[in-house]
């Protein structure tokens, strides 16, 4: 069994009744007033800001505030009653499993609360004790949810369940239902989340390398058809998600030779997309393919190195994107294009990873007569890799496209809980260590 590090529980205390907690959580998502979003109910200092803050975090579920984590509730007799996140999570699981008494709105609320709590806490032991009941309940909402919100909440909850437990038996249970959701749903957001969840199931739910390659082929069909393969024609978010997930899966493979030629052709075509996210994801995948293939070539120096595509032409097209000046592209999107494609061009030309800076300074100095002066022979030192993620005492320099892609994908999936899982979840740590 894996030697998982267990996250210490928050300070416990007297808890409110289950009925009262149920009443409070069921108010999640109200457009008028929700006890969960009331700052008056938030326990001061219930979390360290640096633990949940990230400049790139996805905040779509952040309307569930700290009262979902630890809260102080004022009871009728004036006594303060403290509840902690473990009780909240157990109640969410109980309500998700009790479908006979639940309403559509109730299931949406509890699954959204479940996602928030499992993002911001590493809850492997709690989830594992309910795993074989939880998976079928979430699949039922994914297959036959009454509305889009329920399906999306169930997909995200399944994603967090797999990331928290890494059970080898989940992939076979869920994959066919997830693929069906991506193909049959009429809603863009369901397709997007289903693709993300399929990717997590393949990498963290027990899928083997062959399963990863099969999913990459499926994603490539979506990319080549501009989304038409799953009835999402010319849908930017769906195509960009397929590209991002293809890159995440590919970053875990040691050899991309068999996929390279067809993939490069598809990604090159997507460089002309009108969607900036599609262009960036396609360019990033091109950089990854060159990185992986060059590493493979260095490992086998006597094998001919022939990528079967025009690198000069690719660099020329990407250089144009790095200088994109069309007024049809917003300033924000132009900045993103310039930064990413400048990095990709540097990578293709010099074999460096993302964010490498050729700018620098004179490195050699000496002391003469008490004053610091430059040596006659000056040595220029490049700044090098500038992209870093930090959390308290941890720091990680992103020096490869493989690592960059993994960080970006897990940031997207984990949202504001990214730093928590980086610190406490061995699954996430291993993903970064092996990049």
What would you say this structure looks like, in words?
This is Interferon-related developmental regulator-domain-containing protein. Belongs to the IFRD family. InterPro entries: ARM-like, ARM-type_fold, IFRD, Interferon-rel_develop_reg_N. With 435 residues, the chain is mainly alpha-helical. The protein has a domain of 196 residues. Helices cover 55% and strands 9% of the residues. The protein is built from 18 helices and eight strands. Strand 7 and strand 8 form a beta hairpin. Helix 6 runs antiparallel to helix 7, helix 6 packs parallel to helix 8 and helix 14 runs antiparallel to helix 15. The protein is globular, with a radius of gyration of 24 Å. The two termini are 23 Å apart.
């Amino acid at each position: 069994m894996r030697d998982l590090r267990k996250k210490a529980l928050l300070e416990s205390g007297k808890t409110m009744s289950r009925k009262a907690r149920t009443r409070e959580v069921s108010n999640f998502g109200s457009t008028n007033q929700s006890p969960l979003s009331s700052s008056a109910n938030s326990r001061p200092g219930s979390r360290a800001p640096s633990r949940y803050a990230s400049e790139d975090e996805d905040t779509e579920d952040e309307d569930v505030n700290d009262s979902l984590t630890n809260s102080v509730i004022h009871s009728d007799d004036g006594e303060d009653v403290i509840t902690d996140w473990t009780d909240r999570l157990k109640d969410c699981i109980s309500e998700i499993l009790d479908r006979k008494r639940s309403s559509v709105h109730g299931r949406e609320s509890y699954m959204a609360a479940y996602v928030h709590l499992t993002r911001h806490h590493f809850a492997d032991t709690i989830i594992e004790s309910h795993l074989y009941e939880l998976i079928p309940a979430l699949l039922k909402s994914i297959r036959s949810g009454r509305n889009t919100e329920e399906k999306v909440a169930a997909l995200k909850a399944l994603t967090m369940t797999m990331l928290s437990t890494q059970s080898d038996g989940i992939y076979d249970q869920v994959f066919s239902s997830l693929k069906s959701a991506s193909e049959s749903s009429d809603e863009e957001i369901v397709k997007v989340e289903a693709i993300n969840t399929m990717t997590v199931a393949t990498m963290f739910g027990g899928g083997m390398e062959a399963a990863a390659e099969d999913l990459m082929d499926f994603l490539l069909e979506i990319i080549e058809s501009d989304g038409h393969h799953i009835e999402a024609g010319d849908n930017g978010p769906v195509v960009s998600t397929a590209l991002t997930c293809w890159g995440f899966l590919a970053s875990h493979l040691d050899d991309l030779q068999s996929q390279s030629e067809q993939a490069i052709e598809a990604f090159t075509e997507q460089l002309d997309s009108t969607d900036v996210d599609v262009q960036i994801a396609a360019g990033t995948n091109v950089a990854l393919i060159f990185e992986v293939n060059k590493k493979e070539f260095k490992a086998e120096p006597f094998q001919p190195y022939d990528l079967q595509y025009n690198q000069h032409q690719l660099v020329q097209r990407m250089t144009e994107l790095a200088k994109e000046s069309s007024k049809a592209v917003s300033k924000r999107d132009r900045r993103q294009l310039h930064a990413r494609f400048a990095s990709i061009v540097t990578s293709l030309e010099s074999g460096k990873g993302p964010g490498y800076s050729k700018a620098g300074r004179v490195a050699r100095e000496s002391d003469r007569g008490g004053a610091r002066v430059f040596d006659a022979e000056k040595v220029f030192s490049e700044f090098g890799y500038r992209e870093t993620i930090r959390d308290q005492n941890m720091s990680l320099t992103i020096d490869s496209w493989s690592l960059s892609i993994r960080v970006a994908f897990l940031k997207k999936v984990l949202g504001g809980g990214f730093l928590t899982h980086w610190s406490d979840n061995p699954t996430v740590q291993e993903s970064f260590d092996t990049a």
